[in-house]
Write a structure and sequence with these properties.
2 domains, nine-stranded parallel β-sheet, six-stranded antiparallel β-sheet, 14 helices, about 20% strand
């Protein structure tokens, strides 16, 4: 994590300044017991819930607000978004960094995105790296940042400028085909897989991302020609080459095989590069309606975009599964609870299951939803044993706050929560932090020291009277000002745990603070 040293020195400096103003050394607050492991009933369990939001950069949906705006405005917009996310007690940002074989970061493989600078291949001026900046700003606030990529799209219809000289269609034209209004990498060409896998390797090696995330674009959604006829995807050459080498195979089965091969390999590559970087997939919430029960109807992702998402989920080729359940709770053919229950049955490996919600429907478009639709979906998620969080599409609606959406979410998210732990990726557990409570200017301060290595987060629980309150702090924190009294009750206990990058929590270091000593 960048600039952590500066932040630590700043925190220590603040404490030392307070000490010098008091013209005395900090007084250690007497403790009823020295550091001890908390009794299991001494402090409440830390809340766990994934609270995430997508920040889409394609077509400037969320960020930057316009292509080519000044760098200082780009940074200000992103900071404001992260401030809003932190204010809402959310904990995860899914940030789109590759919209269509382009990059919103300094890449040697692909050109700068036109959605950033207005011209593909042109870096920001003055120069900065948006992904590095986003990671730093997110981690500074204790937020996870997941790098969101589109694995096969090569040019989006909203693109307006010329393609850069180092665009894939010019460097490797045999990998790219024209399909309707799109350019698309051919998933049937093995080199397409390796190209995108190298992009992922590069991101993991150079950036401190918490996860790699892909959405629902594998083979493209089908387009029609001017006469309204469906256009078939132009992969005859790669299909013929495969059949010539391996023998006959149904074309649809071959296309699904191509996507399955890529998804399994992507999962393996992420593990090879960094075993604590997670992998998340967000497909459309419909797999095969005829196979999902009589109540489910609509789009067949298995047949039309060749995405066998059930297989990936069942086989555990991912760490979290976030199907886009973008329909009202009671919509006939796509009922929220019915879909949640069906997907739960497919979760054979016990992976995280976090529905994606179409929060942008509140106040936008021809078919707008009341806020109660989104809060109701969160309520169904919380009530289900299958699911442990939600992902909101997308950030712009949280900035605009139509129908007081933000107020409603702040009520639901009024207490902070940790991201559910991904315990299957590690057998280790962080050690208890070293904790002390000192008095500075007659005010209690909590001093935090990691026991072995830098913590990702600290969970600080304080008790006033018989009521506990939880706060989650970024791991660079070294000192915390405590509230000596709340609601007429004095501070009497503090419990602190350290949390690692997989969300695994240490045992607690517990302090009983004597009443009246501060």
């Amino acid at each position: 994590m960048k600039n952590i040293g500066l932040l630590i020195h700043f925190a220590v400096g603040v404490l030392l300044l307070a000490m010098s103003v008091a013209s005395c050394s900090p007084e250690r607050i007497p403790l009823a017991d020295e550091a001890r492991t908390a009794d299991p009933e001494a402090a409440p369990e830390t809340p766990r819930e994934l609270r995430a939001v997508w920040i889409a950069t394609v077509s400037n949906i969320d960020w930057p607000s316009e292509r080519g705006i000044p760098v200082h405005e780009q940074k200000a917009e992103l900071r404001a978004m992260f401030d809003r996310i932190a204010m809402l007690n959310m904990n995860t940002v899914i940030f789109q960094v590759r919209t269509a074989t382009d990059a919103l970061y300094a890449s040697e493989h692909e050109p700068w995105s036109e959605y950033l600078t207005g011209e593909q291949g042109t870096p920001p001026e003055p120069f900065y790296d948006p992904l590095a900046f986003a990671i730093e700003e997110a981690h500074k606030r204790g937020l996870e940042l997941h790098a969101w990529i589109n694995p096969f799209r090569s040019r989006h219809p909203s693109a307006r400028g010329e393609l850069a000289d180092n665009h894939l269609s010019k460097l490797r034209p045999e990998l790219v085909v024209e399909y309707g209004r799109h350019l698309w990498m051919d998933p049937g060409h093995p080199d397409s897989h390796e190209w995108s896998l190298n992009v992922v390797r590069d991101i993991i090696r150079r950036y401190d991302v918490d996860a790699i995330h892909v959405d629902d674009y594998f083979y493209p959604y089908r387009e029609r020609d001017a006469d309204g006829n469906l256009i078939d995807f132009p992969d005859s050459a790669s299909y013929a080459a495969f059949v010539a080498e391996h023998g006959p195979i149904d074309r649809g089965d071959w296309r699904r095989r191509n996507v399955d091969t890529f998804m399994k390999r992507l999962h393996e590559v992420i593990r090879e590069e960094d075993p604590v970087v997670r992998f998340g997939v967000s497909p459309i919430g419909l797999w095969r309606p005829d196979h999902q029960g009589d109540e489910i109807q609509g789009f067949d992702a298995y047949e039309q975009i060749y995405a066998d998402a059930r297989k990936w989920f069942k086989n555990g080729w991912l760490d979290y599964f976030a199907p886009q359940l973008y329909w009202p709770m009671e919509q006939e053919g796509q009922k929220y609870q019915v879909l949640v229950d069906w997907w739960h049955e497919q979760n054979h490996e016990g992976r995280h299951f976090w529905p994606g919600n179409f929060t942008n429907r509140v106040g936008y478009g021809a078919e707008t939803w009341p806020v109660s639709e989104i809060t109701g979906q969160i309520g169904l998620t919380r009530a289900s044993e299958a699911t442990t969080g939600n992902i909101h599409f997308s950030m712009r609606v949280l900035m605009m706050n139509p129908e007081n959406l933000v107020d409603s979410l702040m009520h639901l998210y009024r207490e902070p929560a940790l991201v559910p732990a991904t315990e299957w990726l590690s057998e280790s557990r962080p050690q208890r932090p070293v904790v002390d409570v000192v008095s500075v200017l007659d005010k209690p301060y909590l001093i935090l020291t990691p026991a072995d290595e830098a913590a990702w987060l600290y969970v600080v629980k304080t008790r006033h009277g018989d009521r506990w309150q939880t706060e989650i702090l970024p791991g660079w924190s070294q000192q915390v000002k405590l509230d000596p009294g709340r609601d007429g009750a004095r501070l009497n206990a503090v419990a602190v745990t350290a949390v690692d990058r997989l969300g695994v929590e240490s045992e607690a270091t517990f302090r009983d603070v004597r009443s009246g000593d501060h």
